[in-house]
Automatic annotation (TrEMBL):
<feature type="compositionally biased region" description="Polar residues">
    <location>
        <begin position="64"/>
        <end position="73"/>
    </location>
</feature>
<feature type="region of interest" description="Disordered">
    <location>
        <begin position="126"/>
        <end position="167"/>
    </location>
</feature>
<feature type="compositionally biased region" description="Basic residues">
    <location>
        <begin position="129"/>
        <end position="141"/>
    </location>
</feature>
<keyword id="KW-0540">Nuclease</keyword>
<feature type="compositionally biased region" description="Polar residues">
    <location>
        <begin position="143"/>
        <end position="157"/>
    </location>
</feature>
<keyword id="KW-0269">Exonuclease</keyword>
<feature type="compositionally biased region" description="Basic residues">
    <location>
        <begin position="24"/>
        <end position="35"/>
    </location>
</feature>
<keyword id="KW-0539">Nucleus</keyword>
<dbReference type="InterPro" id="IPR037433">
    <property type="entry name" value="ISG20_DEDDh"/>
</dbReference>
<keyword id="KW-0378">Hydrolase</keyword>
<dbReference type="InterPro" id="IPR047021">
    <property type="entry name" value="REXO1/3/4-like"/>
</dbReference>
<dbReference type="GO" id="GO:0005730">
    <property type="term" value="C:nucleolus"/>
</dbReference>
<dbReference type="InterPro" id="IPR012337">
    <property type="entry name" value="RNaseH-like_sf"/>
</dbReference>
<feature type="compositionally biased region" description="Basic and acidic residues">
    <location>
        <begin position="14"/>
        <end position="23"/>
    </location>
</feature>
<dbReference type="Pfam" id="PF00929">
    <property type="entry name" value="RNase_T"/>
</dbReference>
<feature type="region of interest" description="Disordered">
    <location>
        <begin position="1"/>
        <end position="99"/>
    </location>
</feature>
<feature type="domain" description="Exonuclease">
    <location>
        <begin position="173"/>
        <end position="339"/>
    </location>
</feature>
Amino acid sequence: MSTLLLNLDFGEPPPKKGFEGNAKHRKFVRKRRFLERRGFLNKKNQPPSKAPKLNSEPAKKGETSSADGTWNVSPLPKKKTVVSSSGPEQSLDKKAAVPWLTPAPAQKAGSAVAKVDLLEEFQSALPKIRNHPARPHKKGPQKNLTQKNAPQSSPQPHSDDKCSAASQKMPKKMVAIDCEMVGTGPKGHVSSLARCSIVSYHGDVLYDEYVLPPCHIVDYRTRWSGIRKQHMVNATPFKVARGQILKILTGKIVVGHAIHNDFKALQYFHPKSLTRDTSHIPPLNRKADCPENATMSLKTLTKKLLNRDIQVGKSGHSSVEDAQAAMELYKLVEVEWEQHLAQSPPKD
């Protein structure tokens, strides 16, 4: 007890172990690294633990204090990781050991390790902050973005392209049609579709099929239609053919001569604003030196304006030839007639 009293009354207070512990820890780490860089010891996988500060909090769960004032941390349990398709494995637990906190690799064996400050080494070992990887965009929106951004740099060519594109798209949306009918019903007085031909603006054949009427054929009308019994052997049924034809006509400008007869045989109504009937175009009659309000035959207009003979002979008409002739007649007055329709559009 006397010794205790002497130490308490007259002796100096014991030195603070916090600072000695910090100095010992630094010296230990420097020696350890020096030996590791020399190759005498393997590098420690566990990140260096910090020395406890003065008046620090009690040790947490899993930590123990040693005699020299350092903290020994027990190894942490392995945490589950998630492997993403766009990057490396990411830890699910924020408290898991971070691999980049391990000491930086040695550059030279003879470097003065004692002069390197521990804080600077940790700062150099810290990874650079990277932005989160952007989510990959779909291919479709990327294409749309490029198409939207491209015209902004050159607005004038864009307007020119619109005009040229409109002129190019107009013929593609225009077709000519002609149908041949046979007689069905009582005494063959009902006209039923037996052949249909559709040509493009440039006269190319888009559709040409023989059609089998749903009713019994009484009169083939071969003198005008050119239809014979053998043509009906492999003919397309009316319902199937009608569906195919309407897919071509829908949304397009349809040219024809006395075209209302063709639509009636198809049991179809086409908008008047998209119909061009060459039998009722006054500028076409004026060009042929015929009365404007007269209904001229396709054969007469073709002979006078195109100088070509059609519907000749006793073998019957050709629906392909008639559709091509109607389209060529329309082209003769296309600009004038379209301007007239733009000023006074027909009512459906």
